[in-house]
Amino acid sequence: MRECHKDLFLVFRGWIGRMLVPAFLALSLSLLGAPGTVEAKQLIDQNRDGVAIQGYDPVSYFTMGEAVKGSDEFSYQWLGAIWHFASAEHRDLFIADPVKYAPQYGGYCTSGISSANLHGANPKIWSIVDGKLYLNGSQSALNQFADSGPGEIGAADATWEELQAGLTE
User: Fold this and answer.
1) How many helices (H) and strands (E) does the chain have?
2) How far is CA 132 from CA 80, 100, 104, 128, 163, in A?
3) In whole angstroms, what is the distance from residue 48 CA to residue 51 CA?
4) Contacts of residue 132, Cβ cutoff 8 Å, sequence gap at least 6
5) What pLDDT, in 10s, does the model give residues 106-153?
6) How many CB atoms lie within 10 A of CB 35?
7) CA trace torsion 64, 90, 79, 153 (10° rounding)
8) Strand ranges (DSSP E) for 22-164?
9) Model's pTM, two decimal places?
10) pLDDT at residue 34 is higher than 60
């Protein structure tokens, strides 16, 4: 390469490096999210479609004593999430008193909440204590919850108050 072309190439290559690489990096970070950032959590644990507790019917735990998958045919929007129900009757019971039937801590794992760790629960792993529904992420978490009883609920209640400040609806 001739010397003058070589100098021009180096200048051009330097311009590309100074202008295009930072622009490309900024675009990439805006599309992918900056390293270390996490998506804001919701007040209610929900999937990408905005459905709470993986589409399970929260009323079924109380009326049927089991986790039953709901249907979008019987749905209701509450606290920024879509709740599914197994029947119109269950939906109407929930609408009349959502606080009675909704899981504690927005449906997040109770054991996780008690240790300030916000993560989803498995709606098939649950318990009702003093008329309130608690979901957990695993059988071992449920066992820990059962063994700790009121202590874990107290810790989770206190932590939930703090965690809610960082959540968005």
Assistant:
1) 7, 4
2) 21, 7, 7, 5, 19
3) 7
4) 104
5) 999 998 898 888 889 999 999 999 999 999 999 999 998 888 878 889
6) 6
7) -20
8) 71-78, 81-85, 122-129, 132-136
9) 0.73
10) no
